[in-house]
């Protein structure tokens, strides 16, 4: 641990920046000294009431001047290249402070991406610069830019990995050891675990899907709506903990939440949070904190001046993971294994991902292992759970789509057989339902890219200054009518099957990026499709209809009434999509489901 990392984020930020902030300070301080050293007789005398405020102002002043200077340099560089800079949002307060405040407020209370959408429309550009605190905050929904960045990432990755500052904001949760020298996840080691049709994965999915459906039936038969999001989180947590380290946290066995409007009086001993729930909540809280940090931009440490907000929840998370890691490391020691033996791409029968990583990372610190495991868990667990939740929400809103999906399930797999990889591969409509869900609600909302874009032929290309990292919103890109057609905001899985597929997606595959592209493409993509498909097949073998249950939602978790007058999806949405690292439905998703009569 170095000196900086031992300080709370705010302190460490100030210490790291104090010198660069204040190159003017020595000049100003000279005046102060001059004041104090009257005895020198030097003629330049500045009164203390002038020199003191000047001294205090020197730090922010130098900060602003440095940034304005950089802007001048960038403008000149752009002109030299025959390019222009991204159009800047014009706020009312210095440093676009009002824009930052509005962005944070609307991220908290509004519909995802609505502020960016409005500014994009106002500036008539799909790439814009919020220029918050005199610093570039460039944002894009342009597939051409993202595509360019893919090529860039493939060839010149070192310069374009997620910025150091971004890494710093996530480090206290995701750790720093997950990236290898190229800034890439250790893919070769984990790749064999994500192969398309590992039978052991299907065994895991089946056990947990059955447990989930049994618990759902119990609760629904007792007359209570269920929180599908909570159920999906439990299903993916139990599956992930078993898949990753053969240590199923058994969250499906813990008590389920009751609907807000009809909770029975519970025995207080049942109200104690189980280990699974504490772990799950702490993980969500940590993700929430790092999402808040990313919204604040570079200055987020100033809000954590005396305390790292992720410290407490991460203590709970680590308290669960570390004993499992210790056990795995001890096992390796007991077996006298030295690590780095054999081929890291070969997996022994029955070996868990943790056992495999332990075998091949012997020289590294256990923290690296913990970070890897936690990263895979966060990357794989919430994403899949929330995509399933969004699918159930959309199917509840579109019963005809559900009827068509069920008939495909019954045609291919029948009412009770366990689905296999070949079934999943052939079920086109099921895949289209998942893709359409991922198009409207790509759960990994916004990722970073750096690009040299040059899209509209009538305009000069936009110059992106070196090493600028640009968040791009897949969420907004997936809803652009110029890319997907006039019905882009509608849920219609057929668009992945009918003529619209060839018209829009086939010629321009970069318009659909729920799993990202290039070197950062999600390694768990096939695993996720398998897990989600498996669960939906099992679910709709057992149930035939879904109805949203808004009355069971906790207060203030449904879309605010004023949304209904908004245009687009905001006006029709009946759940409130929010995001921390990934998207989720505020207050869960309360539904009633009817058991299928056609089960054998
Ligand atoms: C619907 C489900 C999923 C979606 C939408 C999704 C999406 C994504 C996206 C967009 C990224 C790139 C993030 C970035 O560029 O920073 C990513 C990375 C990643 N995903 Fe997924 N993912 C899903 C499921 C899974 C599953 C099930 C696993 C593993 C079991 C997984 C493992 C990973 C890992 C390890 C990375 C990091 C790769 C790297 O940094 O190079 N994902 N995922």
TrEMBL record:
Tell me the Gene3D superfamilies matching this sequence.
Answer: Cytochrome P450
Alphabetically, the GO molecular function entries are: heme binding; iron ion binding; monooxygenase activity; oxidoreductase activity, acting on paired donors, with incorporation or reduction of molecular oxygen
Give any Pfam family that matches: p450
- Residues that, per the record, bind heme: 522
Q: Which cofactor does it need?
A: heme
Give the family, as the similarity comment puts it. Belongs to the cytochrome P450 family.
Query: Know the name of this protein?
Result: Cytochrome P450 monooxygenase pc-3
């Amino acid at each position: 641990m170095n000196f900086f990392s031992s300080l709370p984020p705010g302190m460490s930020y100030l210490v790291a920046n104090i010198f660069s902030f204040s190159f003017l300070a020595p000049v100003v301080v000279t005046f102060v000294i001059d004041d104090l050293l009257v005895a020198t007789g030097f003629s330049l005398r500045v009164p203390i009431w002038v020199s003191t405020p000047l001294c205090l102002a020197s730090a922010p002043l130098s900060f602003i001047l440095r940034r304005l200077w950089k802007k001048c340099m960038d403008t000149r560089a752009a002109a030299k290249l025959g390019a222009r800079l991204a159009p800047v949002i014009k706020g009312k307060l210095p440093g676009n402070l009002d824009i930052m405040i509005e962005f944070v407020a609307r991220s908290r209370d509004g519909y995802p991406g609505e502020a960016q959408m409005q500014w994009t429309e106002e500036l008539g550009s799909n790439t814009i610069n919020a220029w918050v605190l005199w610093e570039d905050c460039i944002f894009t929904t342009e597939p051409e830019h993202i595509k360019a960045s893919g090529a860039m990432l493939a060839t010149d990755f070192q310069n374009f990995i997620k910025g150091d500052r971004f890494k710093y904001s996530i480090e206290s949760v995701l750790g720093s050891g997950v990236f290898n020298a190229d800034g890439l996840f250790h893919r070769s080691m984990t790749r064999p675990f994500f192969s398309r049709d590992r039978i052991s994965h299907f065994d895991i999915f089946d056990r947990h899907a059955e447990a989930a459906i049994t618990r759902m039936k119990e609760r629904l038969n007792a007359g209570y709506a269920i929180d599908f999001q909570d159920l999906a989180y439990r299903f993916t947590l139990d599956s992930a903990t078993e898949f990753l380290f053969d240590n199923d946290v058994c969250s499906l066995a813990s008590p389920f939440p009751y609907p807000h409007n009809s909770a029975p009086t519970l025995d207080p001993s049942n109200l104690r949070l189980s280990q699974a729930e504490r772990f799950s909540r702490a993980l969500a809280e940590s993700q929430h904190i790092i999402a808040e940090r990313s919204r604040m931009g570079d200055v987020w440490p100033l809000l954590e001046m005396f305390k790292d907000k992720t410290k407490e929840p991460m203590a709970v998370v680590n308290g669960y993971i570390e004993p499992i890691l210790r056990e795995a490391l001890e096992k390796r020691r007991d077996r006298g294994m030295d690590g780095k033996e054999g081929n890291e791409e070969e997996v022994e029968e029955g070996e868990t991902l943790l056992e495999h990583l332990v075998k091949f990372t012997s020289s590294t610190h256990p923290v690296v292992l913990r970070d890897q495991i936690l990263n895979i868990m966060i990357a794989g667990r919430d994403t899949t759970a929330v995509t399933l939740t969004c699918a159930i929400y959309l199917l509840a809103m579109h019963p005809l789509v559900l009827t068509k999906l069920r008939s495909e399930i019954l045609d291919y797999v029948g009412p009770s057989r366990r689905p296999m990889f070949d079934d999943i591969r052939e079920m086109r409509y099921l895949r289209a339902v998942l893709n359409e869900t991922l198009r409207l609600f790509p759960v990994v909302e916004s990722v970073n890219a750096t690009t040299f874009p040059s899209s509209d032929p009538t305009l000069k290309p936009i110059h992106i200054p070196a090493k600028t990292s640009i968040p791009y919103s897949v969420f907004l890109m997936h809803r652009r009518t110029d890319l997907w057609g006039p019905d882009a905001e509608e849920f219609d899985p057929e668009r992945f099957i009918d003529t619209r597929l060839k018209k829009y997606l086939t010629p321009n595959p970069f318009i659909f990026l729920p799993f990202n592209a290039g070197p950062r493409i999600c390694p768990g993509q096939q695993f996720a499709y398998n897990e989600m498909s498996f669960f939906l097949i099992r679910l709709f073998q057992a149930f035939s209809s879904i109805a949203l249950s808004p009355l069971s939602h906790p207060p203030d978790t449904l879309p605010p009434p004023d949304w209904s007058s908004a245009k687009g999806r905001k006006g029709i949405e009946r759940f409130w999509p929010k995001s921390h690292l990934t998207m989720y439905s505020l207050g869960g998703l309360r539904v009633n489901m009817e058991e299928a009569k056609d089960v054998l």
